[in-house]
Amino acid sequence: MARRALKLASLATAAAATTGFYLYGNKHLDPNDFGVVRVGRAFATTAVITFDYLTSLRSVSRGTEEYESVKSQVHLRSAERLRDLCCANRGTFIKVGQHLGALDYLLPEEYTRTLKVLHSQAPQSTRQEIEQVILEDLGKGINELFISFEDAPLGAASLAQVHKAVLQDGRTVAVKVQHPKVQTQSSKDILLMEVLVSAVKQIFPDFEFMWLVEESKKNLPLELDFLNEGRNAEKVAHMLRNFDFLKISYNLGKMYSEMIFVNGFVHCDPHPGNVLVKKCPSTGKTHIILLDHGLYQVLSENFRLDYCRLWQALIKSDMKRVQKYSRRLGAGDLYPLFACMLTARSWESVNRGIDRLPVTKQEDVEIRTNAAMYLPQITKLLNSVPRQMLLLLKTNDLLRGIESALQTRASASSFLNMSRCCIRAVSMHQRSKSDSLYRKAQISISEVLSLWQINLYELFLRLKGSQLGNWVIAFLSWMHHSS
After folding, report:
1. pLDDT band at 32 (very low <50, low <70, confident <90, very high)
2. Beta strands of 239-376 (E only): which ranges?
3. In this predicted model, which residue has the larger pLDDT, 56 or 276?
4. Cα distance between residue 409 and residue 394, in whole Å
5. Cβ count near 331 (within 10 Å)
């Protein structure tokens, strides 16, 4: 197993990947790891947050400015308590807290803003703990396995951390080591969360977060299996082997469109800590490096094609097809809400065309306000859509956060890339279902023409935004007025 794992971790440079092997177990005691401490802390935090909401808002009239101000303060206090709980209990709690921090369409801003810091404040295991984990799992010490092993990790996440090391044969590798006790604590933590969520729902009937507990219960074993992560890393490396990226803003969306619409194999944890940007010293080209390959979503063919057609309808503002494919994906009568959640745009923007205008600050405020207003409907929708959709929604939110930071959110180029991938995916499916060579040729010709239309439109947009384009437009305007 060790040879296999270390092969997966081999790198041309230490930052180029972080696949590795699963390592767990530790004999060193920490009071924070005792069950009674972790359970007591979780119950106490939940009780304090619940009591704060019940008492702080009781004497304030709903709909007033004072009510909104008090509610915002309660949200912030509660979010900070929840963040502190995640940091103290670590492991699974940080992982779930990171997921909550990405739910911009569901949680108040005070929560998402506060919990987003969990992406960069993961705990670190000590050198002694790392040595014990490696010895227990592989039967050999660090000095026997490596010529050198850096004490300071290259990066630390909720479930593991990565160290730069050199193997006995001289290869530089990234060694991903699971935090001690995460494996044994994870199932107990999920059970604890399930009990707490059920208890809160008894007090606040609109609190519908059991779907998040169920998703964590399903996905955590996959994220803790580092051999599975290694296989995922090899698969996605082969799948995207032809991508030679030149710039991050344009190609992050292109890469994910390829994974979602064409391949149906999606890296579902693209938070800022898992997406690195590196400039190659020899060529000057900028490369995207995807880390943490534990959590992937495999999309069924029917789901993937319906999702393709839904996005095609959204980009074309074809509301009949938006309704049709939203319903097929489980949204039912809540398809307008579903379209807004997928695009993170207002219903007005969805009707007008999501590629027409960029997102404004006013529209962002409107979306957050509506999210709070329609919380029961949102939770009902999340409980009714296919489980595949939940991870895609999380992935969309994380990507939008990166695009917002890069100021490329809702850009025309991102929608054009999505359109290309959707056209290719649907055409591939149609050809696979046809036995007629003539029909296959028709499909291929239609695909080429559609892709050329997109290329011409993209060329038009580039010319329009260039100095040459401005000169041409000015000249045509002058000609029109002259005549």
Report:
1. low
2. 265-267, 275-279, 286-290, 296-298
3. 56
4. 16
5. 23
Rg of the Cα atoms in the chain: 25
Catalytic residue among 104, 137, 269, 397: 269
What gap in Å lies between CA 322 and CA 228, rounded to an integer? 36
Q: How far apart are CA 157 and CA 223, in angstroms?
A: 12
Strands (E), 285-331: 286-290, 296-298
Annotated catalytic residue 269: yes
216-365-310 Cα angle (round to 5): 60
**Would you give the end-to-end CA distance of the chain in angstroms?**
79
pLDDT tens-digit readout, 297-325 = 788 889 889 998 998 888 888 899 999 99
Q: In sequence order, what are the beta bridge partners of 217?
A: none
* Residue where the block lists tokens 């304090």: 48
Q: How many angstroms separate the CA atoms of 349 and 466, rounded?
A: 26
- Closest Cα to residue 381, out of 330, 306, 319? 330
Residue 167's DSSP bridge partners are 146
Q: Retrieve residue 57's tokens.
A: 């808002």
The residues that bridge with 149 in the sheet, in sequence order, are 165
Q: What is the mean pLDDT of the chain?
A: 78
Q: Cα(334)–Cα(315) distance, rounded to whole angstroms?
A: 19
User: Of all residues in the chain, what percent carry a pLDDT higher than 90?
Assistant: 13
Of the ranges 51-55, 71-75, 97-101, which one carries the lowest mean pLDDT score? 97-101
DSSP-derived letter for residue 167 is: E
